[in-house]
Amino acid sequence: MTALIKPFRGLRPAPGRAGEIAAPPYDVLSSEEARVRVDGKPWSFLHISKPEIDLPADTDPYAPAVYAKAAENLAKMLEAGLLLRDDAPCYYAYRLTMNGHVQTGLVAAASVADYDTNRIRKHEFTRPDKEDDRVRQIEALNAQTGPVLLAYPQSAEADALIAAIATGEAAADVTAEDGIRHQVWVERDAERIAAIGRVFDGMAALYIADGHHRSAAASRVAAARRQEGHELSSDHFLSVIFPHHQMKIMDYNRVVKDLNGLEKSALVIRLATAFTVAESAGRVHPARPGEFGMYLGGRWYTLSIKPELIPADPVASLDVSLLSDHLLAPILGIADLRRDKRIDFVGGIRGLAELEKRVDSGEMAVAFALHPTRMDQLMAVADSNNVMPPKSTWFEPKLADGLVSHVLD
Q1: Which pairing describes strands 299-305 and 291-296: parallel, antiparallel, or unpaired?
Q2: Which of 144, 193, 315, 388 is in Cβ range 3.0-4.6 Å of 238 for a Cys bridge?
Q3: pLDDT (mean) for 18-37
Q4: Which has more pLDDT, 30 or 171?
């Protein structure tokens, strides 16, 4: 087997500048939101990850000029000394803290070869247009700037090695506007670096949590460069790898525009074929798998799937699948979650009040609150070489862009 991960010469903010540079991931803000966010922040990494914000508002975000602008903005930051590259390959510890939840992972270059052979396992389909976007971004910058979020299976030894890096004063310590704290430490010791490599090489697999398009794009760039005779750092991709037991998946809820021709009372009656239905005095945040909250006509209901309808299959037994197979498709007529415009998805970070807002405004007719998918379910799906339904997982807290980037030599 190839080395699953390797250290690399990270491109990082100069001392004392991380707060000016760190930015939300490119895919969690619209272009309009990003323009507002960078007001008064000339060195925000959003100028690299969403460079259309520095072009006219009607610019196509996939136009060649956008990727050229990203390269121009990166060059300016390098010239100004805002970003510096480590002299030797390192590993990095990355700690996220959100509302008392703490998770500490390893920043490393993950093997494209192991991604290609499914040792780094996937659980989602990708869209070609989104892959194309990330390929163009990597090629324009000659760097990977958006880390892929990975998980590793149970390993007390890996946990201890990473915890040992995350001691003393951090090289970067930033509390973002959303209150999430991001800390990065650098590991330069050759013996510790070798020990980390040995422990991870002994793992059967890593699991992509978030970043399927970024990892797919890295694979495509590596393949193209191999054909051209270049095989250096493009054969690895930027990743942050957390222990699976520390990772936090939030609920990923659904809102639907109409009731497929049904009256509210008729919908509730139809639900009884697959669910036990009970009206609730307050908001329903599902307490266990197989339980759902429904907000309809200003009222909350608890829906509990009938146990005999839960199959053993790792995909079909997911709550997102149970809701689709027994409610969204047969009753509301939504069979294609990717393309049907009648359904939208709301990350749990927005809370149940957002579901009420969408329904009470008349924009949506009904909302469904789900119990979060568990990491062991994600890993089981990936191990079975299957994929999850769209919008199955919402990971929080999210990594920042700009704290560590991977230059392709």
Answers
A1: antiparallel
A2: 144
A3: 93
A4: 171
For the cut 80, the answer to whether the pLDDT of residue 230 exceeds it is no
Q: What is the DSSP letter of 124?
A: S
Phi/psi of residue 104, each to 5°?
Answer: -125, 125
**258's tokens:** 């109409």
pLDDT of residue 358: 98
Which of 251, 245, 250, 386 is CA-nearest to residue 313? 386
Closest CA to 332 of 304, 372, 367, 292: 367
What DSSP state is assigned to residue 309?
A: G
DSSP assignment, residue 212? H
Give the span between the Cα atoms of 260 and 346, in whole angstroms: 20
- Residues 118, 139: Cα–Cα separation, whole Å: 24
| pLDDT tens-digit series, residues 42-79 | 999 999 999 999 999 999 999 999 999 999 999 999 99
Q: Are 321 and 315 in contact (CB under 8 A)?
A: yes
Q: DSSP letter for 177, please.
A: T
Neighbours of 104 (CB within 10 A): 19
Does pLDDT of 232 surpass 90?
no
* DSSP assignment letter at 169: S
The burial class, CB within 10 Å (0-12 / 13-18 / 19+), for 231 is: exposed
Closest listed residue to residue 246, CA positions, set 389, 100, 350: 100
Examine residue 397 and say whether the peptide bond preceding it is cis (omega within 30 degrees of 0).
yes
Strand partners, 275: 305
> Is the separation of the CB atoms in 55 and 70 below 8 Å?
no
Instruction: Give the tens place of pLDDT for each residue, 99-135.
Output: 999 999 999 999 999 999 999 999 998 889 999 999 9
User: What is the dihedral angle through the alpha carbons of 147, 148, 152, 158, rounded to the nearest 10 degrees?
Assistant: -10
Domains of the chain with bracketed CATH: 5-248 (no CATH), 252-371 (3.30.1760)
Tokens of 193: 């670096």
Beta bridge partners of 368: 254, 294
Integer-rounded Cα radius of gyration of the chain: 22
Torsion of CA 383, 385, 387, 393, to 10 degrees: 20
